[in-house]
Amino acid sequence: MRPTQITIDRGAGVMQVVWQDGHQSDFSLAWLRGNCPCATCREERRAAVENTDPLRLVSTPPPSTAVAAAEFVGHYAIRLTWSDGHATGIYPFTGLRACCPCSACNPDGPPPLVYD
Ligand SMILES: [Zn+2]
Ligand SMILES: [Zn+2]
């Protein structure tokens, strides 16, 4: 499943994807950043889940949810560059479609992004 059009609406904070079958997915940029598929962010999320130590390391500001740039990676994925310079996240289209946030695709909310 591939998109026919991707629109990043910075004002609304949404990446709108129109798929080959005409379906449309509106991904919030905050969700995309929160599910960044790069190895560093995946490791940070894994550690956060497993961390039972009450000691917390907090760094600010929080990760940017503003997209500075976007480019296609081959025919299978899109790479997003965030305004804080983070640019290692490559989002595969098949994973994005599975995570469509509309109530028809995922009535209980989108699942975590699948990367491979
Ligand atoms: Zn990342
Ligand atoms: Zn949908």
- Which geometry do the CA atoms define? globular
CATH domain class name: Alpha Beta
Q: Which consecutive residue ranges, at least 5 long each, have pLDDT under 50?
A: none
Note the beta-strand portion: 25-35%
Please bin the fraction of helical residues: 10-25%
Whole-number total of structural domains: 1
Bound ions, cofactors and other small molecules, one mention each: zinc ion
Structural class comes to: alpha+beta
What is the CA-atom radius of gyration, in angstroms?
15 Å
Count all strands and give the number: 6
Q: Output the strand order for the largest sheet.
A: 1-2-3
Distance between the termini: 14 Å
Written as H for each helix and E for each strand, in order along the chain, the element string is EEEHHEEEH
**From the 3D coordinates, which CATH architecture would you assign?**
2-Layer Sandwich
The fold-level CATH name is NE0471 N-terminal domain-like
Describe the structure.
With 116 residues, the protein is of the alpha+beta class. 21% of the residues lie in helices and 29% in strands. The protein has three helices and six strands. The chain starts with a strand and ends in an 18-residue tail after the last helix. Residues 23, 25, 100, 102, 104-105 line the site of one zinc ion (ZN). One zinc ion binds next to loops.
Helices and strands, with pairings:
Layout lengths: L2 E7 L4 E6 L4 E5 H6 L4 H12 L16 E7 L3 E6 L7 E3 H6 L18
Antiparallel strand pairs: 1-2, 2-3, 4-5, 5-6
The structure holds zinc ion (2 copies).
The site of one zinc ion (ZN) has 7 residues, from helix 2.
